[in-house]
Amino acid sequence: MSTLWLSIEPELSETRLMLTQAQIGTALRARLPTQPSQPRALLLLLEAIAAWYGQPLRAVLDAEATDVQRYPERWAGLLGDLDGERVHVEWVGHAVSPRRRDRFLGAVGDFSSAKRLITFAATGQK
User: Fold this and answer.
1) What proportions of the chain, in percent to the nearest 5, are helix, strand and coil?
2) How far apart are CA 102 and CA 113, in angstroms?
3) Which listed residue, of 6, 18, 76, 113, carries a Cα 20 to 30 Å from 26's Cα?
4) pLDDT-wise least confident of 18-22, 45-49, 112-116
5) Which domains, ranges and CATH numbers included, belong to the chain?
């Protein structure tokens, strides 16, 4: 059974998610409000994605994001009681080259940072 990978990138104006599936590639990209309105919303979303695909989900949270660094306890609370067999979340810091991203590439923007985050978490390669 293959594993799904989901990057979670909290930014100042939004939280970006990118779901990738082995041997298929990107399956879902989303731009959500910065914070969920309900405390369990992120947990429910991750569990729902794993249930939808019937596969384990490994999520990587950008630990270097400003919001995560300022409020780590909030992010720990949002990711609280996960079922470790179906959903696993890693806090990942990565060295990303500081380059300007064009927000108008594609329908929902440039997700190259999300791809690097997942690649680093999965392989350790930058």
Assistant:
1) 30, 25, 45
2) 12
3) 76
4) 112-116
5) 4-121 (3.30.420)
